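Report of the visiting student (M.T.), summer placement. My assignment was to run the structure pipeline on a short list of targets and document each run. The first record concerns Cupin domain protein.
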Amino acid sequence: MKKIKLISLTNIIIFIFTLNTFSAQTQNTYTMQRDTVFAKGEKIDTGNFTGIAYLNVLIASDKENPTAVGNVTFEPKARTKWHLHPAGQILLVTDGVGYYQEKGQPKKILRKGDVIKCPANVEHWHGASADTYFVQVAITNNDKGNAVWLHAVSDEEYYK
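After the run finished, the structure tokens were exported:
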């Protein structure tokens, strides 16, 4: 009788452990899927970024609608060069922690839910913090021309 109870108890413990492991795996998968609004996209190789970043073009601008919408994912420390937009830009932060800085202004820390309005023709840069990724949806009006890319953000500027 004791042997049957011991076997039953062992089976119950194994069953509970299996359920807990499955539940944890399911929960982690759900969290990752829930936090990812759009796919990461393709690696950006334009030379206008420091570090690794990805772009998923959601809407390309055209003559009928000159507004481009893209999901940009920055790996830690990745950032744009200094640049400006002739008709401005809007950034919607969807995940991670990042930075935004306009020329001559202090750097701002960005978190999920933040919205940034980049004024027309104002030099700025944006990207991930040093230790976490950063995801943004960039809404850019190209009616007055495309972005004007300038010089790289130095490490001194980035860490300031």
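Residues 5 and 11 are 10 Å apart (CA to CA). The two ends are 71 Å apart (CA to CA). I thank the supervising group for their guidance throughout the placement.
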